[in-house]
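A reminder from the course coordinator: this example appears on the midterm review sheet, so study it carefully.

Given structure:
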């Protein structure tokens, strides 16, 4: 990383005024959702309308697709996909969008995802987008949603960023029903023998509220429950969210819910959701939430938005059901993974693709000149002006991601430079030249300012590389020891020299193996800002170790969580939250939302 850089005053074009995201979205005339469904090939009988511009898609559509015999979805051997989905989905091309390690300067991953889909549509391709749903916590906390920006957005953006169709509320209700059943069981005699100091299931709310991270509940006397320590997670960190997003159908959902570990007995034996006879009632609460939501881009490209697990504590991808549904409907499916490629893409590939039998056809790595300068050691308030020295110092971050995708996962990739008006030709050319050395093509993405028309260069490259054969390779085998799997991720993907396991983590891994869960994939809980577990180490750090403090098992979701650093499952609000600027006028028009 460069300690001292030189800034050159470069000539740049004056910044074109682009309205705010919400202004653009509110001026857009949306098509009726039935028209979008027809464009996606979804029969109206499978559409459950939520007004004029939102709908859920019934899972029964897979049965119709089976009758149509449209071919088989691509999948790895041993995948747990349902017969209907595997037998009926045609071979749509799966395009996964990821990014460099995020910085406060911004990368624009969701914007690029949406703009790329619109660009593919402009080129005459039948394209469907598959995205995650936003969480209310970040919406009212730090300014930022999950519906893109500028002229590459998904609409109705206000609805999607707020309550949408109620999926997260249903997940929170199911989570808290289980919590209530646990404490009621203890109050009513504790037949299962819960050790109240080892209850692992926490309550959930879809809001950033640090006050609820750790609480004492059951106060007020015997009739009000058994006093014990408890806490809340944000809804997106609930294991139910991960379960919903990895389930193939309602049967698989119920099986996964039943396998969730909620606590341990005094003899250290796990207690499962199924032991509390809670699965049926929880599944009822999730009966609509399991169905993907259909919306549209500003340019009327169909979008399936469904689920939104944390990319730190969970796998950070939209649902398997929505992805497979999109693949059965579109010739090209553009989706994204959370955070940078070391975290989100690694989990997308090693967890989601492994479990669902998916094989990506191409990967897009999003980067900005500004963000790469920050990785090169420049402060956010010093990014203006051409600075080739800082850019060159920050480029190793991007290059390491390229190498991981190309060599470790054996997938073709293209770098999308999310171009800003102030970026100079010299800066753009430097990125292009360095990327070519690593075997990656580069395209400018100007979808924020121009919509799909600003992404056709990128789309043409994506079409080209997606039609090439690839040898998709996972980072580790299922049969490997959990400790070896963690080491494989840390050394191959992060480039750590070693991994240090705390005595607590070693004990927990041994316990997981005794429970017969050692073959589950690994979900690394790590900072998104760095390849290392230290968020201050930007760029492409070397000579570091990763420290695993604790290891948990999410048996229902089907992965082992390795915690590094300080990962919070309940964020807090900033000093000046976005909620302070959001309002609604007498006509019902929302203002201040991005």
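Designed residues:
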């Amino acid at each position: 990383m460069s300690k001292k850089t030189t800034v050159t005053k470069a000539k740049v074009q004056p910044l074109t005024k682009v309205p705010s995201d919400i202004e653009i979205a509110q001026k857009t005339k949306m098509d009726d959702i039935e028209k979008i469904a027809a464009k996606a090939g979804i029969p109206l009988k499978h559409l459950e309308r939520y007004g004029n511009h939102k709908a859920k898609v019934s899972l029964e559509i897979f049965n119709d697709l089976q009758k149509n015999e449209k071919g088989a979805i691509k999948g790895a051997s041993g995948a747990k996909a349902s017969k209907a989905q595997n037998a009926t989905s045609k071979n749509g091309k799966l395009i996964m969008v990821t990014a460099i390690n995020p910085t406060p300067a911004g990368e624009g991953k969701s914007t690029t995802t949406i703009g790329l889909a619109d660009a593919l549509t402009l080129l005459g391709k039948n394209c469907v987008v598959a995205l995650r749903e936003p969480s209310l916590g970040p919406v009212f906390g730090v300014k930022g949603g999950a519906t893109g920006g500028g002229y590459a957005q998904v609409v109705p953006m206000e609805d999607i960023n707020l309550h949408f169709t109620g999926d997260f509320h249903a997940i929170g209700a199911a989570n808290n029903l289980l919590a209530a059943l646990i404490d009621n069981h203890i109050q009513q005699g504790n037949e299962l023998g819960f050790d109240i100091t080892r209850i692992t299931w926490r309550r959930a709310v879809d809001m950033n509220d640090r006050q609820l991270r750790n609480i004492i509940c059951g106060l007020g006397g015997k009739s009000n429950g058994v006093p014990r320590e408890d806490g809340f997670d944000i809804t997106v960190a609930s294991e139910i969210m991960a379960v919903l997003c990895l389930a193939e159908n309602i049967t698989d959902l119920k099986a996964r819910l039943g396998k969730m570990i909620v606590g341990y007995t005094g003899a250290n034996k796990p207690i499962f959701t199924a032991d509390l006879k809670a699965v049926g009632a929880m599944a009822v609460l999730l009966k609509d939430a399991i169905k993907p939501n259909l919306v549209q881009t500003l340019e009327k490209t169909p979008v399936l938005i469904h689920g939104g697990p944390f990319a730190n504590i969970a796998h950070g991808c939209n649902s398997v059901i929505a992805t497979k549904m999109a693949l059965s409907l579109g010739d090209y499916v553009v989706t994204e993974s959370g955070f940078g490629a070391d975290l989100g893409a690694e989990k997308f590939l090693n967890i989601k693709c492994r479990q669902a039998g998916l094989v990506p056809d191409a990967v897009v790595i999003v980067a900005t000149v500004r963000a790469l300068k920050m990785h090169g050691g420049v402060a956010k308030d010093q990014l203006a002006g051409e600075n080739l020295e800082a850019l060159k110092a920050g480029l190793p971050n991007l290059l390491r991601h390229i190498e991981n995708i190309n060599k470790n996962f054996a997938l073709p990739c293209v770098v999308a430079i999310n171009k800003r008006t102030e970026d100079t030709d010299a800066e753009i050319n430097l990125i292009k030249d360095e990327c070519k050395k690593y075997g990656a093509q580069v395209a400018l993405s100007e979808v924020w300012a121009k919509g799909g028309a600003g992404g056709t260069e990128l789309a043409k490259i994506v079409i080209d590389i997606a039609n090439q054969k690839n040898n998709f390779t996972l980072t580790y085998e299922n049969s490997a020891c959990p400790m070896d799997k963690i080491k494989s991720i840390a050394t191959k993907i992060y480039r750590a020299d070693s991994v240090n396991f705390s005595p607590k983590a070693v004990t927990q891994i041994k316990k997981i193996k005794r429970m017969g869960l050692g073959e589950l994939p690994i979900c690394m809980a790590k900072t998104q800002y760095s390849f290392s577990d230290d968020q201050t180490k930007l760029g492409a750090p070397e000579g570091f170790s990763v420290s695993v403090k604790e290891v948990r098992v999410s048996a229902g979701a089907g992965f082992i969580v390795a915690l590094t650093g300080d990962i919070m499952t309940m964020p807090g609000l900033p000093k000046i939250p976005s909620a302070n600027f959001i309002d609604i006028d007498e006509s019902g028009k929302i203002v201040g939302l991005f």
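Residues 1-15, 69-89 have pLDDT under 50 and may be disordered. Residues 167-187 form the longest helix (21 residues).
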